[in-house]
Every structure is written in structure tokens, then in C-alpha cells.
Specification:
heterodimer, A: alpha/beta, Rossmann fold, six-stranded mixed β-sheet, four-stranded antiparallel β-sheet, 6 helices, 10 strands, globular, B: alpha+beta, 2 domains, twelve-stranded mixed β-sheet, two-stranded antiparallel sheet, 13 helices, 56% helix, 18% strand, elongated, binds adenosine-5'-triphosphate, binds magnesium ion
Chain lengths: 224, 400
Amino acid sequence: MIIGSNLAKIYGKGSVEVRALDGVDISIRKGEFVGITGASGSGKSTLLHLLGLLDRPTSGSLIIDGVEVASLNERQRTLFRLNRLGYVFQDYALVPELTAEENIYLPSKVRGMTVKECTRACRDILGLVGLKDRVSFLPGEMSGGEQQRVAIARALINNPAILLADEPCANLDTRNSTVILELIRKLNKELDQTVVMVSHEEWHQKYFDRVVVMQDGKIVSGGE
Amino acid sequence: MLEEEQVAFFLASRLITRGNKGTLLLTIMIIAMVFVNLIFLPSIIAGIVVLFNQQNIDYSYGNLVIEPREDQLLITRVGELQQKINRVPGVVASTPRYSGAATIVSKGKSTTPLLIAINPDDEKQVLKIHTGIASGDYLNDGDTGQILIGTTLAGNKDQTVDRTPTLGGVDVGKTVEVTFRNGVTRQYRIKGIIASGQFSVDSSAFITRKELDSVLGTTDTANQILVRTQTTGKEEAMRITLMQYGIQEKIWTWQDKSADFLKSIVGSFDIINVISTIVSLVIAVVVIFIVIFINTVYRRKQIGILQAIGIDRSIIIKSYIFQALFIFASGTLAGCALLFVLLQYLTASPLVFPGGPVAPVLEPMLLFRAIASLFIVSLIAGFLPSWLTTREDLLSAIRG
Ligand SMILES: Nc1ncnc2c1ncn2[C@@H]1O[C@H](COP(=O)(O)OP(=O)(O)OP(=O)(O)O)[C@@H](O)[C@H]1O
Ligand SMILES: [Mg+2]
């Protein structure tokens, strides 16, 4: 359960201040697949950064799974990201020197699983995203779609409360985008995984349970 | 806590094994060179100092030098004193000398070097001058009418080559005329030419004490007794032992005798050494730093992403420290190998200084200092850039 109230993010100061987010109220229930759309510069990424604890709001409150995130210090925020959040970036952002498996292994090992448990979990999750036969491939040896699926697996390895994805299909063609969207949809349905995904593609919307529309730093519909 | 190190090590090992091999190799090579540079010159200098010291002991002073008592000009009853000295435990041998200026003339060329009267057999047990005979023979105890001439004193036929007054290229078998302080003049046949490499020896002349006694009419006198002890380096203790055995003459160690000369040389070498060490270290710092810094800056985005997915900065910093330590360890190892090859080469074809070949002296302290300083530099070079990068704003790091 995510509850953001009156969230604001203001860049700059004085006369040149930019209200990237301007009084956003949003709540997301467990198991929901929420899509965020809106024009470029409307504040979609900014909101996702706040939800992903990659950035702090200028004002407002954000409660994720009952935790007021403003109360966390830097180390606790990192831990929170590790244990409760999964983040998927537009450009996959895998470590190029690590194989598919090792990329996923990293956050699970940090969380304190034994090597055996990690390896098992990594294989399982790579199977889930359909990359059983890419286990020991380096990112440079995989297609964009495959890399993004590894990134999704990495985001999911620690069973996060929310999977956050900022335009995960932006660098992919329609066929690969469909694969990713189908995959996320499947994870959402089968694992009851809460998903918040930013997309400005009209045709993506059929996958979402709910569409949040943003404009000029405000939610104009779907915020609930 | 060990969990963190495990992950950091895992990350570091992958970044090293799958990263750019060329850069890695180059960095390791540079560290190796710096390591060699940190060790090599100081060890040569240490070798030179050891050589100088050994030369002083072997050709000029022995370990201890005994000189006349406070208010006396000569040591008298030398034979008795020598027996007393030789009985002291730790003493190998002693050799009395009577040295003074004398004028030597050969074919109209005249110069006034130090003329040293010796007991050849005693000398052989204390000094190594007898090993430096370039031509002819060394003196024997009973020799009269014979003289040894140092090669510098003997000089060259081509006078322009000589930097000090010489006899103009005299040789074995020729006769020179020596005028002593008391005005006595005698003819001597040159028995041998000495080329020891030690200037003070090679610019002197030697006759037997027996000969000098017949000239001066003295018996059993000397102005120095040189003493060879079993171990070098314990001269101060031996000096005290000799005093305890009732030697009332002045006792100097070879260090006392050669202090000024040696200190100034060692001092200059030390300055060269310090400068070279500092330069090497600065190069090491800059190189390790630049390489790791560029590496971290280049991976700024990746470091941001690792933090974004929940990898704590301490893990990231540690992984960069591990990488730096790996570079340090391989660099040092490669440096050791390089050094070994270099030392092998120098043993095969040594650097020859006046006085003999210089063997590089590898002091453990020197090795330790080089390794420790490189270690610390690597640690800082691993820590600082990653510390700075992980301190940055997460979002701007991720944006790249
Ligand atoms: N670091 C920053 N400094 C100043 N202004 C910023 C900064 N980051 C974002 N902004 C501003 O905040 C506003 C919202 O940006 P945001 O990235 O959230 O838009 P977006 O909806 O994700 O757009 P897009 O669809 O192009 O990704 C924009 O006007 C942008 O210029
Ligand atoms: Mg955006």
C-alpha cells in the first residue's frame, strides 16, 4: 500500500523555480498495475523517483507499507530500496562486467542470502522472465529486450513491495515492448506484484489496471 | 559485516577480470616500475656506502686505530703493546705503522707524499693492500732498500693525465731517491706498484719499519697501530674492551676516523635518495589515483545505479579499495620480479666504482618502506574517488 499526500518537488529557487510536482495525492493498493502517463515534462519521472526513494520530496508525505519514508536516513533508504522496492530503468542499467545471473545475484547476496539460495533464486527468476538459457551471458551479448528482462528479474529478486519502471520499453521495438509488457502483466497477475510504470504510449494503456494522467506537476485523473 | 566484504570482493573481482585488460596491465606495470624505482637507487646507494665503509676498513684503518697517548707524539714499546692488543678476545691482528711525509725524486720529478713504514706480515693480517699489487711484488718483513709506490703517485708518462703531483710514470725495478725528514737521503728500488682503488693508499709509498728504523735510528716506535677485529660493526664495544685490558693509548674506531669524509658522501646520497623517493611516490600517487579516478568517474552512472538498487555505498567503496589493492599487489609482485632480474643482471655485470664492484644492498627496511608506502597510496586511491562518487546526488549520478 502506497499513500502519497500533497507531494511537491520544486527545483531551483526564487523567480526561476520549477514545480516538477505540485501537490500530488496518490494511493496505490497492493497488486495493482498502475500506469502513469502525461506529456513530456509533466512530472512522471519525478513522481517515480520519489516513489523509488531515489529523491526526496520538497514537501508532503509518502507512506510505503506503513513506513513514513521521510523518517529514514540515507542508509535506511538504501536498505529500503534493497528490500522493498524494485526499480527498472529505461536503459536497463546492468553492470556490463557481470553476467545475467551475476547482475541479479548482487542485490540478493547483499540482502544476506547464502550463495546457494541466491543461485537458486537467480535461476528461478531468470526462468520466470524467460531467460533460462542466458544465465551466463554478459549484457553486451544480449538484445535490448533481453537486457530489460534481466533488469526486471534483478528488480524482483528480493520480492519488492512495488516494482517501479520508468518507460522500460522506450528503447525497444513494438515486438520487444509487447514481450516486456506481457511479462510485467504476468508477474502482476501471478505474483500479485504491485507495479507502477511510466509510459506515454497510448497502446500500453490496455495493460494497466488504472491510468494516472499527469499534467504540469499535478495529477489530473486516476490518482484516487 | 563479512557479507559486505564478500559482495565487494565479488564485484571487484568481476570488474577486474572482465574490465579493460590493457589499462589494468599498464597500471600494474607502472606500479611495478615505481616499486623498482623506490628500491633500486637506494639499494645501489646503500651498496656504495657499504663499499666505501669496507674500503676504509680494508685499506686505511682496519676496525680500530690506536694512536699515541694524550701528551705523546709516538707510541713506544710497540712490540709489547702489540702483544697485549693481540691477546684481547675479539682481536684478529694488529699492525703498527710509522707514517710521515718524505720527498721522493725520480728523474728530476719530485713530490712529497706520505711514506708509510709497515711490518708487511702484520699488514697482511689487518689490511688488504697486499691484494692490490698491480705489478711487481709486495714487501717482505726483512726488506731493505725496497719501496712500494701507489699507482697514483707513480703517475703516467703522459703528465697531462695526472691530476696530482706524480713521479711521472715510474715502474717496477726503477730506482727512486727518498729524502727523509731528518735530511737522510737514500736510494730505493721499486718492488711493486699498488692499485687498490683507495686514493689515500694509491697516492702513498711504503717501506718496511726495519728500513725506517735504520734511517731514523729508532726502535720499537710507531704513530699508529691498526687493529682488525673479528666482527665489523661492534667497534665501539671493542674499543671499551681494549681499554678494560689496560690499553692507555687513544683508541679510535674507523667511523671516528672517516666520519667527516663519509658523512658528507652519505649525506649527499641521502638527499638524492629522498628526492628520488619522493618523486617516485608522487608518480605512484598520481598514476594510481588517475587510473582509479578515471575508472570511477567513468562508472559514475553505474555506481549510482548500484546504489539505486539498494547496494550500500560502503560495499561500493570497499569494492574499489579491493581493486586498488589488487593493482597494488600485482604491481608490487611484478616489481619484485623486475627487481630480481635487475639484481641478477647486476650480479653478472656489476657496476664498478673506484674501489671495486658495487653490490646493491637490499635492506628489509627499504623493502618494507616501499611496500608500505605503495599500500597506503593504493588504499587512498581506492577509497577517495569512490567515496566522492558515492557521496554525490543519486539522480545526477544515474543520469550520467
Ligand atoms: N534536476 C532538475 N532541475 C531542474 N528542473 C528539473 C530537474 N529535473 C526535472 N526538472 C523539471 O521538472 C519537470 C518534470 O520533469 P520529469 O522528468 O518528471 O518529466 P517527465 O514527465 O518524466 O517527462 P518525460 O516524459 O520527458 O520523461 C520538467 O519541467 C523538468 O524540466
Ligand atoms: Mg521521464
